[in-house]
Amino acid sequence: MEFNGRIVEFLENKSILVTGSTGFLGKVFVEKLLRVQPNVKHLFLPLRALDPTSAAQRLHSEVLGKEVFSVLRTKYGVGFNSFISAKVTAVAGDIALKNFGLTDDSNLLKKLLKEVDVVAHFAATAKFDERYDVVLETNTIGAKNVLEFAKKCVNLEMFVHISTAYVCGEKSGVVLEKPFKMGETLNTTTNVLDMEEELKLAQKRLNELMAAQVSEKEEKDAMGVFGMQRARLFGWPNTYVFTKAMGEMLIGKLGENVPHVIIRPTIVTGTYKEPFPGWSEDVRTVNGFILASAKGKLPCYPGNVETIIDMVPGDMVVNATIVAMVVHANLHKSSTNNQFIYQVCSSKADHVNSDRVMNSVYKYFSKNPLIGKNGKPIQAVNPVRFPTMNSFRRYVFFKCELPLKVLEFVNVALLQYISDTCKDVERRINQMSRMIELNEPYLFFKGQFDDANTERLRMLVKMNQVDQDTFYFDPKSIDWDDYLMNIHISGLVKYVIRI
Question: Can you name the residues that pair with 173 across neighbouring β-strands?
Fold first, then answer.
């Protein structure tokens, strides 16, 4: 693999379509492009909306209006809106639809197909227990639709798809940067995965629920349960990674003649440096545990001390994405392999386990406690870690569920006088238990991600000092204790945590 150009120079005068710009990584990606290459020709951002006016409103409220664009706003001052108007167009469209729902005779569709050079597909739903019909539509069919659109772009140079390293399921040992085969499953006792059948089954289950006239919540919950059942049948722990794996399969099969790369980040956390340290807006995975601990709602958690919590800052994921995108856009004409996978991870650089994370959380909030709604500091609690799920469940039963039963008995004796207290305690127990249940596969994850392909990209970037400084993504440069304490957690407090 060779690359003698400049990353920034490639981006000049390019038209790039970016899905998922309302998401965390999508925003960081768009901001980075506009900041480092103001001479990018144009960015087209499909946004789910009824019409162009609604799409433009979403662009300004859910993308450009966020703090992550403050550096650009400061740079351009009163000229910011003019700069954006010249460089960014919100497209009213939905990835669940062919050509984003644009009609074949649409002037905008014709313009996109003629002008777009690069398609970057970030859009996804990342809820672990999302209802099956919705997550299939977004993560699997959405990936197919965006790829099919890219294939029709006459000047297409690269299609980049953002997946997740955890498409590997609960695999142990070294997890390679290896593509999926169409219909492959992680459960060796299960038949070949048939995506068309999955779509039919999801629709059948939905029809059954609608015929039964269940409530909207009951329908949502039932479709979520059904999705988890289907995912686990084939060896994946949840619908998110299951449908992302199926999306990869479709791209591998349908994108054989399309230059493309797949980016698989691990747990994405707050920005390391740019546009400023610590920006985040996500409350899932490790951030959910930090948030619960900060609010005194996590007295305990299960986890193996040997389990690696593989985190990577969002700006490093975006930098790796841009570098892979540019390098392969330059190489694809002479390459016989049209698919490359890059795992953007940190576990080979430094091992961070759950104890290390939670100790940092406790230290931070002991010194900087959150202030509750009553105006008083919330006392930091260092949660107890249990090495197995069984030991965790026993603790929860005796320390949480049994006292709740006693409290409920007292409440009956007091003629429902402390009903609100009982409901609050029950809600907290249920929230903690649900968070643990969904994250259990990752609290005991036994794999370690290989990043040999990504390391080769890093070596290429190091050949040019300017590119190395601009598009840094080497996790070996991170002091994780300092990052957790002084960048990530403090960023969550500033930008995410609400009392």
Answer: 447
